[in-house]
Design goal:
Layout lengths: L4 H4 L3 H22 L1 H9 L21 H6 L13 E6 L9 E5 H17 L7 E4 L8 H11 L3 E3 L6 H10 L4 E4 L1 H13 L11 E4 L6 H11 L2 E8 L4 E7 L6 E3 L4 E6 L13 E7 L10 E7 L1 E2 L11 E2 L4 E2 L4 E3 L2 E3 L1 H9 L8 E8 L2 E9 L10 H19 L3 E6 L15 E3 L4
Parallel strand pairs: 3-4, 3-5, 5-6, 6-7, 18-21, 19-20
Antiparallel strand pairs: 1-2, 7-8, 8-9, 9-14, 10-11, 11-12, 12-15, 13-14, 16-17, 18-19
Helix pairs in contact: 2-3, 5-6, 7-8, 8-9
The structure holds zinc ion.
Zinc ion (ZN) binds next to loops.
Length: 434
């Protein structure tokens, strides 16, 4: 099924014509309304009148996450604040977030684009859609919620209630489609097994997962344990949230909503554009957004483009599933966390030295973060267990208060964690086999 055939199946020429018209309008608007872009275009001697085809996009400067952080909260908005009717944030973590403002049209467009995502995996007005994403500053919960309402499905906003409650709802409300992070779906599957409930007792048919990278292996596991067909989708808060790209029934690449986002893949080192098929960093230009339009936004996500006819009938180009990141960002339960944020918090605690390891692992189907650190010299090892416990709890509490995540803390003997020898030291071990 295709939600917006007149856009999702455009001929290449018609699509390019639409893209260039929308790009030109966006460029004029940002040059006039956003001082960041006026300065960036002037500095790079960009004459926006000369951007006449999609190929010319290479003349435009990039926008980075750092640019957005520097303009926090509202400096890059292209409309007066009275026209902003919703504000989300780039992630649930603290530190320096990115505020993303939506106008009424932006929200309408967002629901429309996510409705395409839902329709592509077979969700219709007959479905009971359980949205087990956090309804918060991050975008997934609300993005899927309004789109599911738009297509007329029965929406169950279960948010991040614990797994037992999710299962009760799955059973009693006869949920047919589950939307969550893949790791949370796996956790629900695990608890289902513990409760000795056969997935065939449920009405569940479809799973739509996202907000963190996941492998084909994990897909197979979730599908067999929940007895469903599982689909991937991609979005990032800075652009819009969910609704950037999505799998169709082929499940071989994610169609990009190109009538709203112009995609490029670049070499993250040379910053040169790469041809279709080559792997690099995804870069998007928004061409319909009003609140926070972005020109050549560097996502940090690694993928490649697939240009081949898709049996579903859509002509929108596809991207491969995300294979990693250009930086060391950690994605845990859909939250984006940088090791530097953990380090900053640790260093605020008395007696802590910056020698630590972040270990990401999965237990009973649930992802968790373990922080391994050295016992501070101020606490003699072994003989002061109570003090050690207090110390661990202090770290746990600090991290929970600042980042909203529960971590496990383990202590090791002083001077046993590798020290930097001048090279960048790897402080993250990711044991999750995703
Ligand atoms: Zn397709």
């Amino acid at each position: 099924m295709i939600y917006a055939k007149n856009y999702e199946c455009l001929s290449k020429d018609d699509l390019e014509q639409l893209q260039i018209e929308r790009l030109q309008a966006t460029l004029n608007r940002v040059y006039e309304k956003v001082s960041f872009y006026k300065n960036a275009f002037d500095k790079n001697k960009v004459n926006i009148e000369k951007i006449k085809s999609i190929k010319d996009i290479k003349e435009l400067p990039f926008t980075t996450k750092d640019d957005l952080r520097k303009s926090y909260p509202y400096d890059m908005f292209a409309v007066p604040l009275r026209d902003i009717i919703r504000i989300h944030s780039s992630s649930g973590t603290s530190g320096k977030p990115i505020a993303v403002g939506y106008t009424r049209n932006d929200l309408k467009m967002w629901s429309h684009l996510v409705a395409r995502v839902l329709t592509a995996c077979g969700i219709t007005s007959h479905d009971f859609v359980q949205i087990a994403f956090n309804y918060s500053l991050i975008t997934a919960g609300f993005g899927f919620h309004y789109a599911a309402e738009e297509i007329g499905a029965s929406v169950i906003p279960s948010s991040i209630e614990d797994a037992k409650k999710q299962i009760m709802i799955l059973k009693d409300y006869k949920t047919t489609a589950l939307l969550s992070t893949p790791s949370y779906a796996l956790h629900i599957a695990h608890v289902l097994k513990e409760l000795k409930i056969n997935p065939e007792e449920l009405s569940l048919k479809i799973g739509l997962f996202g907000a963190e990278p996941w492998s084909e292996n994990l897909r197979a596991q979730i599908e067999s344990q929940l007895n469903i067909k599982a689909y991937d989708n991609y979005g990032i808060s800075e652009l819009i949230g969910p609704g950037v790209s999505f799998e169709c029934s082929e499940r071989n690449g994610l169609h990009i909503n190109e009538d709203h986002f112009i995609v490029e893949v670049i070499d993250p080192k040379s910053l040169k554009s790469l041809p279709v098929g080559e792997t690099g960093e995804l870069v998007f230009t928004t061409i319909t957004k009003e609140g926070l339009p972005l020109i050549r936004f560097r996502t940090g996500d690694i993928s490649s483009l697939i240009e081949e006819k898709c049996s579903c009938g859509r002509t929108l180009i596809k991207m491969k599933r995300i294979s990693g990141r250009t930086d060391d960002m950690i994605i845990l339960d859909g939250l984006n966390i940088f090791p530097s944020q953990i380090e900053e918090i640790l260093l605020q605690i008395e007696g802590v030295e910056p020698h630590y390891l972040i270990i990401l692992d999965r237990e009973e189907g649930k992802d968790f973060m373990q922080i391994q650190m050295e016992v501070p010299d101020s606490i003699p090892y072994f003989d002061e267990l109570k003090k050690l416990e207090d110390f661990k709890n202090r770290i746990k509490d600090h991290i929970y208060n600042k980042l909203g995540i529960n971590v496990k803390v383990t202590l090791v003997e002083p001077r046993t964690i590798a020290r930097s020898s001048g090279n960048k030291i790897n402080r993250i071990i990711d044991k999750r086999k995703i």
